[in-house]
Amino acid sequence: MKFPEVHTPIYLRHTILLFLLLCMKLSFGQTSFQDTMRIQAIIYQGDTIPLSVLSNIYVYNQLTTSQKQARANYNRLRNAVYVTYPYARKAGIVLNDINQKLSFISDKPNRRKYINSRERELKKEFTTPLTNLSIYQGKVLMKLINRETGNNCYEIIKEYQGGLTARLYQTIAFFFNSNLKQPYESKDQDRVIEQIVREVQRLYGYAEISKSQNL
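^ that's the sequence the OP posted. Answer follows.
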């Protein structure tokens, strides 16, 4: 079966063509609008120039041998302070309390009885963990106890155990390349230790309890 040929009037063909052109224009215009991006710009000498902020670029030089050693020494000290400061803080609280109580006890037998009772408390609290410290950590601990109490370890032992015992402990410390009489100078030779202590206090929320006058 053959369909009859249909002739579209010329004005209708023009109308259809205009309609298609209009659709294409709208389509291209919409696409152009979606592809538009807003960027920052700056006007420099009459010209508009795109503006963007680049990310920071960090350039590191290779460390020298002395710098590597200095970093290793600092990390070792920082680790020792982190390990020993909680012990020094606890010991400082007990020792400061003992000093305060002893200021009201003048009778020697009563002082000795009180000291012996608190000594058992200190041994129970610290004997096991302190035996696991290295020699280096022990030296740092003695400095930190000095910081917390305002007295060096020699003076503390002499007060509680007598001068002979203190000298014995001092002799033992000498063989371990340490010194019970070492001072704590937060603004001089122990400045780095003090900075690390402040870091530990901020990190764990420790309040300052030191009796030292050198902070």
